[in-house]
Amino acid sequence: MILGWKKKYYEILKELNYSEKKDKESAIILNSILKKTNINKKIISLIKGKTVFVIGSGPSLASAIPKLKNYKKIIKIAADSSIKPLVANGIIPDIIVTDLDGDMKTLEKIGKTNSIFVVHAHGDNIEKLDIVKKFKNCIGTTQSTPFDKIKNYGGFTDGDRGVFLANHFQAKKIILLGMDFGDQIGKYSETKKSDWKIKMIKLKKGESLLKWLSSFAKAELFTTSKSIEGFKKISYKELDIIIT
What we know:
This protein has helices spanning about 5-15, 20-35, 40-45, 60-70, 85-90, 105-110, 160-170, 195-215, 240-244, and strands at about 50-55, 75-80, 95-100, 115-120, 135-140, 150, 175, 220-225, 230-235. The protein has one domain (about 5-244): Alpha-Beta Complex (sialyltransferase cstii, chain A). Helix 7 (about 160-170) packs parallel to helix 8.
């Protein structure tokens, strides 16, 4: 677990009135479902020393999709709410970071491919965890204390957990696309209007965690989306230069 993460986690519990007990309960259930695998080694081979795209479902995803089609060989880590539009455009992410709040039909469909699922257990998704049995390649994570098959790489929302994951597995460069921690909800987000207020709070927390990560990350950090402290803002035209 990242040094200092426990303090960040307890801040999240307090600010959003979450239950550590339920988080642990969910993690225990997920651990009982998962099989022991060598998927961590597969993730290392995909990410270590590489340039990695981390894709969110923010407003800029629409403009990012045509660009993503030009980079078939770049490793792509995607937050689950971005999966539906990505798949619809023929883009299959290498790694999907999900707490199972995205489009379940699409997740189940991609679960049969070689894509790796990083499923996050928390107190609000216990009833959804059974779908993990249908995923071909899957590991589990928690915000609480890791144990057995359950890991903790850091991060809170699917998007920023993807960045923490890439950093943990020693990516050389991490480039954000469709990751807008602003005051708008992207059209591809699965968030209901009634939940927009809490969604904005979560996005602000995710952004603050990325700022924190930038203070110790060894990877070079870039964003094509909204500016984030600690990440170099680049244009789509600069991607070729950054990637080489």
